[in-house]
Structures are given as structure tokens and as C-alpha cells.
Amino acid sequence: MPIENIQFKGDVEAHAETHLLHDQEALNHALHNSTKEGLPPISVSPLHGKFTSILVNLSGARNVLELGALGGYSAIQLARGLKGKGKVTSIEVDRHHRDVAIANLQHAGVKVPDEVEILLGAGLEVLPKLAAEIEEGKRERFDFVFIDADWPNQWNYFDWGVKLSNGPGSAIYIDNAVKNMFVEGVVGDHLKEDGLDVVAQIGADTRVEATVIQTVAAKSYDGIVLAVVK
Ligand SMILES: C[S@@+](CC[C@H](N)C(=O)[O-])C[C@H]1O[C@@H](n2cnc3c(N)ncnc32)[C@H](O)[C@@H]1O
């Protein structure tokens, strides 16, 4: 396919959404209610959310950690990937976002906090508390970590994700990792200097192996990091 066909990206997305996405009522409700409650429209796209749900299912994860709940849209998808056999722990710094997320999850029939718990606080303050609970045997380690908040701390969240992981085979997923490789300049965007972005930092981390998948969708060009603990 010639690269010019990228012009059809919106049509492809609409086609795929129409044919592949079922059981969307609760997810659509989460989006509409989030908009009504004044939350920004920055949740994962429907197909992207489905992708994370499938990954969780494929990985056989039982405990999922999310950074950044917003209105709970991705948390619903992650919980669906668990097929009722695990729990999502999501960290959200904004109280109103947390409250809207809980309402949206409950509308979707997700049990809060048994199937999804939303912990209120800044990621870097809550993560050490989770580590202490794991140390004390009060909490299980995480098999799948979904990082979707606070871009400047992507590396710190990644590092915590590996430390709180269940060891070899645990997955760490960073959303918006490609957009975060760029510095916004006066004249367009520029790639950050080699070694400054999370991809370079992960590449120097011997605890994991990882890849980048660039994505093109109706909304934007971006991409993810997917890493697995060795
Ligand atoms: C991109 S949105 C998350 C979208 C959500 N994962 C989804 O797809 O439905 C980012 C969220 O991270 C939250 N956030 C920002 N900084 C944070 C921090 N330091 N700790 C925890 N959450 C944070 C924001 O309030 C926002 O709700």
C-alpha cells in the first residue's frame, strides 16, 4: 500500500470500530459522562483500548496496575481483559476524575473496589505505598503495568513498574511514548537528543527487553513501548 493511503486512516479506524467492537454501551457511556463532567477527551481510542484488553487477556495477567484513570475508560477495558479473574489497581491524582471514573465503572457493571480500585494520589507518592504493602504481604505483585499519565515521569513509572512486577514475563506498556520522544519547537517538532527519552532509558535497562510500535489513527500519530521483564 503506498504511503499516501495514510489518508484513509480515519476510514480504516471507523470500519474497524464498526465491525470489531461490540459491547460498547458502557464504554460509550463512560466517554459521554466524562465529557459531561468536564473531563478532557484524552482517553485511549476505542480500538487502542481493545488492544490493551486483548494484551491483558493474552498475558494471563491477574493483577494490573494503571497510572492515570481519567474517567475509567481504559480501566473498563483492562478489567474486561482479566475476564473476571483479577484486579486492576489504578492511580489517579485528580479527585474529580477519580469520582467520575468510579461512577463510570459502576455503570459498566465493574465491581469497585474488588475488580477495579482507584487510588487517589500522585503516582510517585502512591507507588512506594504499594511497594510497602507488597513487602508486608498485603498486596500481590503486578503482571501488567499500563502507564498513561504525567509524561515527564514515564521513566520513573516504568522503573517502579519493573520493581513492583511479578518478575519474568510481566509486561509494562507505556502509552504516548512516541509523542514523548519529541520536543515541541518553535518551528515544528524535533526528536529529543539521544539518551534523553524513555526509549533510550529502557534500552539501557538490563532488567527488560522492549519494543516500540508506532501507531497511526484518525486522531494522531503516536506509539507505544511494550516491555517484558526478563
Ligand atoms: C491520559 S489521562 C488517562 C486516560 C485513561 N488511562 C484512559 O485511557 O481512559 C491521564 C490521567 O492521569 C492523571 N494524572 C496526571 N498526573 C498524575 C500523577 N502525577 N499521578 C497520577 N495521575 C496523574 C490525570 O489527572 C489524568 O486523569
TrEMBL record:
<dbReference type="Pfam" id="PF01596">
    <property type="entry name" value="Methyltransf_3"/>
</dbReference>
<dbReference type="GO" id="GO:0008757">
    <property type="term" value="F:S-adenosylmethionine-dependent methyltransferase activity"/>
</dbReference>
<dbReference type="InterPro" id="IPR050362">
    <property type="entry name" value="Cation-dep_OMT"/>
</dbReference>
<keyword id="KW-0949">S-adenosyl-L-methionine</keyword>
<keyword id="KW-0489">Methyltransferase</keyword>
<dbReference type="InterPro" id="IPR002935">
    <property type="entry name" value="SAM_O-MeTrfase"/>
</dbReference>
<dbReference type="GO" id="GO:0032259">
    <property type="term" value="P:methylation"/>
</dbReference>
<dbReference type="GO" id="GO:0008171">
    <property type="term" value="F:O-methyltransferase activity"/>
</dbReference>
<protein>
    <recommendedName>
        <fullName>O-methyltransferase</fullName>
    </recommendedName>
</protein>
<keyword id="KW-0808">Transferase</keyword>
<dbReference type="InterPro" id="IPR029063">
    <property type="entry name" value="SAM-dependent_MTases_sf"/>
</dbReference>
<comment type="similarity">
    <text>Belongs to the class I-like SAM-binding methyltransferase superfamily. Cation-dependent O-methyltransferase family.</text>
</comment>
